[in-house]
Design brief:
Layout: H1 2-31, E1 38-52, E2 55-69, E3 85-90, E4 96-100, E5 111-119, E6 125-129, E7 135-148, E8 151-155, H2 167-196, E9 198-206, H3 211-214, E10 222-226, E11 229-230, H4 234-244, E12 249-255, E13 258-264, E14 267-272, E15 278-283, E16 286-291, H5 296-325, H6 336-347, H7 351-369, H8 377-390, H9 396-426
Amino acid sequence: MSFLVTIFAFIIVFGVLVSVHEYGHMFFAKRAGIMCPEFAIGMGPKIFSFRKNETLYTIRLLPVGGYVRMAGDGLEEPPVKPGMHVKIKLNEKDEITHIILDDQHKFQQIEAIEVKQCDFKEGLFIEGVDSDEERHHYAIAHKSYFVENGSLIQIAPKNRQFTYKKPYQKFLTLFAGPLFNFLLTLVLFIGLAYYQGTPTTTIGQLADNYPAQKAGLHSGDKIVKIGDQKITDKQQINDKINEIKSNKTKVTVERDGKDKTVELTPKKVEQKITKTKTQTSYVLGFQAKNEHSAFKPLVSGFEKSIEAGKYIFTAIVGLIASIFTGGFSFDMLNGPVGIYHNVDTVVKTGIINVIQLTALLSVNLGLMNLLPIPALDGGRILFVLYEAIFRKPLNKKVESAIIAVGAVFVLIIMVLVTWNDIQRYFL
């Protein structure tokens, strides 16, 4: 039963993270007028699909990502290539309105040709030889379709292609995926803050054998001063304790309407955030009581989102630095298998922790996608910045080659990380 719960939780977490990321891309793409033929969650064979307007929504078998296929983004391959035999339907201007790739159709007055040359991005034409061995040049109509498996897939005219949009539209479309992940993190933390409440300066539970308990503080005590600093919120407590470090200090609390002062020494706690980097903090050893309000959860959500962003950013910088210092290990990376293992661990502790994990994974997905690797959003944003600065796009063959190399690199890393995760957790 626990296995099924973990599988269900993993599917939900993975589905939410990828759906939000890809929806961000599609949201801005469609507002820029870019045609999006497919919105996919997962990779590999299609297991479920439905069409809405011009977009086919699919769920695919392998939980290793997702994508939005945008017309003219340089990543899609048209289904028609030179040497293929296809059937075409023409309008009164002898422009192609339908390119028929199978026999599951009811079109009449169609022609069969062997494709000799074609361009579905810039020239928008097909040259082919008909049954009389005559060569013809056909322009593709502004509204035209591929017909495959009984479905109509619209061929994007130039004004609907990513390539021909302005740099700011391309930038927004590419940046929107990570942006929506950051927004998801913010929404989840705000939602949790409204549900759980926000921490106060009043002590709730005390940790055994920690400074607060040893100094004689009680549940219900309200911290009003640390050293010479007056305390009005929980973050001030954390900041002041980390400033004091392991030095003895006075803590004043309000108990039963009276002030009581105790002396204590904060405890040093080290938390490993990467294989080579640890984060040091100082604690008193208590959990604050929470309160519910209308405004504070909004502030708390922003603060926790920024804190999560700093945490993940520090880990990524440490990861990159380790490549040059020789401390790199694939144990520092997590693929789908590693995420499954984390979900399996966290799901046993309750839904709240699963939501917190999802928030962290979301900001992690956003930041990782902004790395300047050609196949990722960050790498493609660099191409757009080049176009904006030099007022011309990078040579398409060069850009395609760089993206292809980047895609192979990402694929190899994904395979190695997945195999390492399998060995680490299951073998």
